[in-house]
Amino acid sequence: MNAMPHFQNFLRAGHSPTLFAAFVYFSFSCCIWVLNGAMAPFIGETFDLSPAQKGLMLSVPIIAGALMRFPLGVLAQYIGRKKATLVEMGLIAVAMLFGFFFVHTFNDLLAMGVLLGIAGASFGVALSLGSGWYPPQHKGLAMGLVGAGNIGTAVSVLVAPPLAAWLGWQAVYAVAAGAIAIPMVVMIVFAKEPPDVDAHASLREHVACLFEKDGWAFSLIYGVTFGGFIGLTTFLPSYYYDQFGVSKVQAGQLTMLAAFMAAAVRVAGGWVSDRWGGVNTLTIVLCVVAVCLGGVGFASSSLVLTTLILMVCFAALGAGNGALFQLVPLRWPTTTAVAGSMIGEIGALGGGLVPNAMGLSKQYLGTYAGGFVLFAVLAVIMLGVMRVMQIRWTRTWAEKGGRARTTAPVAHSPRTMPRRKRA
Predict the structure, then answer these.
(1) How do residues 189-219 score in pLDDT, each as one tens digit?
(2) Are the C-beta atoms of 275 and 399 separated by less than 8 Å?
(3) Residue 411 falls within a domain, yes or no?
(4) What's the pTM?
(5) d(CA 143, CA 6)
């Protein structure tokens, strides 16, 4: 089947300049969010950090970014999503200047990690802004295209190390402070506030999906797919540098190969899920992730084999991110952005587990293998949870395998839950 007419119909169904602006905004935000991870070999050398300290340093931006998503979403309700992105990018610029002028100790570094979390808060607003112009049948693809802004992490680990070697790692913060002007200009020129009211929800409606089993199931699965992606991307420059003795720049280049795979495959994951079903796609994804992470844990003597396995693992993680957000509009059709934002926030916290687990494994077990195996086990557990719950999903709001229903679905949303009829 020729996909081009389908894509052209998709573009005509919404406002593509806003979609583009949301993608650029999310790309730059992801790039800045993982800066400390990209420069970790330089930072670790400067402060003589232990493996556990490195793990803590790398986890702080991830956790802070996850926790800041909700406040940014609330701000977007009151001033609009476009204006909220501009406020956030202004704060990012200020945060980068703090990094350039005031980071002199390990505690300062942790504070800088919290400020980097401002960039990580962009996820929910970016997806809501980009997909807000599109009807329900196209929201999955719109979210996938904006979510492909994860490619910013690959740019960060590729560009930041050479800049750090040339200018000094703190100067990279100053470069980032200036670079954030690019997405700001793009947002001002191209983006238009969407007409949908999906994001205008009360506090109760924002957290309602977390009072449902499905909300927690989606969040925990996303903790493996996206949490694994962002956590491993942040950690891998340190892993390559410490484990294989490559240069700091080469460590970033090797990480880029994996991170690029995740971003490139994310859109394909959503597209395949539209046709094959998100549950089917996630089943394959979680199996591949578990096997690959277990394999990396026991292939630590081969740089080539480790890199190839990680590229396959990241491709699966990217496909999983796209697949999960193909399911979100089906499960919460009237509050997609609200549910997606909360799932993204809780799920992203899983990324903070990865660097900590790796650092503690190295410090107390003498190897990183324990961290990889732990995350592989979590993937297997989430696979079991999903396969149990999908039995009910395919009886209520989705077709077999997690495809969209061709008939009117049962109206499930955080606002109104269906009641059982009495016999």
Answers:
(1) 999 999 865 545 666 766 777 788 999 999 9
(2) no
(3) no
(4) 0.89
(5) 16
What whole-number distance in Å separates Cα of residue 326 and Cα of residue 335? Answer: 14
421 Cβ neighbours under 8 A, 6+ residues apart: none
CB 212 within 8 A of CB 389: no
Q: Distance between CA 151 and CA 287 in Å, rounded?
A: 24
Identify whether 303 is part of a domain.
yes
Domain with residue 93: its CATH number is: 1.20.1250.20
Distance CA 388, CA 383 (A): 9
Residue from 73, 93, 77, 82 nearest 188 by CA: 82
What lies within 8 Å, CB to CB, of 1 at 6+ separation is: none
DSSP state letters, 236-290: HHHHHHHHH---HHHHHHHHHHHHHHHHHHHHHHHHHHHHH-HHHHHHHHHHHHH
Q: What angle do CA 12, 13, 14 make, to 5 degrees?
A: 95
Within 10 angstroms of residue 166's Cβ, the number of other Cβ atoms is 10
Taking only the tens place, the pLDDT of each residue in 353-383 is 999 999 999 999 999 999 999 999 999 999 9
Is 185 a member of any domain?
A: yes
Number of domains in the chain: 1
| Within-domain flag for 412 | no
- Domain that residue 365 falls in: 16-402
